[in-house]
UniProtKB/TrEMBL annotation:
Pfam families: SIR2_2. It comes from the Bacteria. This is SIR2-like domain-containing protein. It comes from Pseudoalteromonas lipolytica.
Amino acid sequence: MTTTTVHNPDQYMYDFRHLLTHNKKKIGVLIGAGAPVSINTADPNTPRKPLIPDIAGLTELVYQGLDDSEKKVFDALEIDLGIKNIELILSRVRSLAEVIGITEVYGLNAKGYEKLSFKICSIIKAIVSKELPSCDNPYSHLISWINGINRDFAVELFTTNYDLLLEEAMERVRTPYFDGFSGSRNAFFDPSSISSNDLPAKWIRLWKLHGSINWSKNEKGEVIRGNSNDEDTMVYPSHIKYDQTQSAPFSALFDRLKNFLLEPDTLLLTIGFSFADAHITAKLDECLSENKSSAILAFQYKKLDEELYATCAALRTPNISVYCSDGAVINGIKAPWAIGQSPSKNWDIIRSEYWMNNSFKLGDFVTFAKFLASSGGSSIRLQELLLEDKKVEQGHVDE
């Protein structure tokens, strides 16, 4: 007789909810390009319009912003790379600008590629320079959850996004944060502050792994954080070029991700991150293979068979768990979801926050952030359910 392996989402969300309210847990959140896509800015009854597009959408918008001659170069680089990805193409543009000198490649010499790099960065900056909606939004919910519990360890936010949405969400509610820069007029990068990590726990750590639209280079070639309205070339690091991530601030930021995962008993939550970034995924694999007490919970928007990079990472590294809409990879086992017995008397209320239309929904950043916020220490309803759970565990609830 054969049995079919399944994963019960209630079991894992019950444990996850308790982890979120544990003030001694070291928690980090890695936010990828899929996060701002979840915010719909379109009017009712009109096609969906994300606040900021994903990489595919960003690539298309950049392409539309180029003139005909620039598009020809873009097309040639796309064929050369075998993929239409703005970060990879920008990486190639910068590499050519550094090495070819007066030699022409696809009709441009080094100076031509420098100008193309600046043009691409200017278009990207215009696209991602968005503000959060004034109403409820997932970024504000995320910060609300972080502020809701007095933690022994600071929450660390890692992001591959260039926008300033996290900064805006924190500043709206006067939440202190540190992003590795010190100073006021032209804040300078201070790697020693990142490595020491000795700020108070109430300060959120914000680590922007791929740069930011308010980063630029000064006359000495140093990366500074200034005004997002600056006109000089913004810094967008190439996202899989190892050698280009070894200079400050990127080497220090990647080291911070590594050091976080190598600390005892850490949990990294990922949302909107596809695991297609080879450099970051390799770092995650390396750290979790070395430190078995750390874990990653990856919340993916699509189905298992559509999240190939994430599921492959979880299959080769058992302490990475991937939660997709139709199933999960947990402890190296890939299986569909199947609702089982409720872990507590009132669990239907909690289940409705992550399970809708027979599908797991925490891969959507809006739903994910609401789930975190509702798990905060100030939630009266959840406190009542926690008390109910405790009574069930102690056998004090009548059947």
